[in-house]
Amino acid sequence: MPTEILAGRSANVLRMGAGGPAVLGIHCSLARSEALLPLIKTLAPSGRVTLFDMPGHGRSAPWDDEGDYQGVTAQQALELCTNPTHIIGHSFGATVALRAAVLAPELVSRLTLIEPVFFAAAKGTQAYEQHRRDFLPFEEAIAIGDTAKAAEVFNDMWGALSWSHSPAATRSALIDQIHLIPAGAPAIEEDNAELLTSGALEALDLPVTLIRGDKTQPIIADIHHALVRRLPNATDLIVKGAGHMLPITHPSETATLIKSS
Predict the structure, then answer these.
(1) How open is the CA angle 170-253-122, to the nearest 5 degrees?
(2) Which one is predicted more confidently, 99 or 65?
(3) Is the CATH code 2.40.240.50 the one for domain 3-121+184-260?
């Protein structure tokens, strides 16, 4: 995977295929671009696809704590879009995809947002209040520097495997990267980009497909409902039996929904 300079930072980029509409994939936090390969290979086995490791992930340069993490990553994504592109994002990567589309809608042909963790969109709901209670142990662990506890809490809320069943190497990697979760928090917890208050979502007139699992955290449904109310051309689809990591655990079912929408 070659290194490129995106938004002034070294990033690892994987380019595949040559035909068909351009597709850009953005992975979830604490993962790497390869996490989307099962989905991408099912969706566009010979198509023109670009994947990249977000800052601090995979083989991209470490995050330097300079600037807005989501904003920098969105700019990196846009620099990979040389013509209108179908952007597929998962979890935090889906929030990056949404922000990129708001920043430069002329570079985006359509969006697929798989469980975007845009928590600010669900404020005022019971699920949001439950999310805040459930996530408090993570914030407390971060505050005292207990990265192992923070990683365990985060993983058990959002991971495909429980902490106790995760391989030691996986647990170690999550602990090393867990600081990236607070780095992205201002954008998804507080909407520091003002996507919810500026009218930007209502003006985003391009096809948006939201996909979620029916076994995921309850707040995801409320996030999807809030976004569907604001986005003029959005649909909300469900993968039965899937949790938050559905691009990895249910790539075929997810690809089928994307193709049919």
Answers:
(1) 70
(2) 99
(3) no
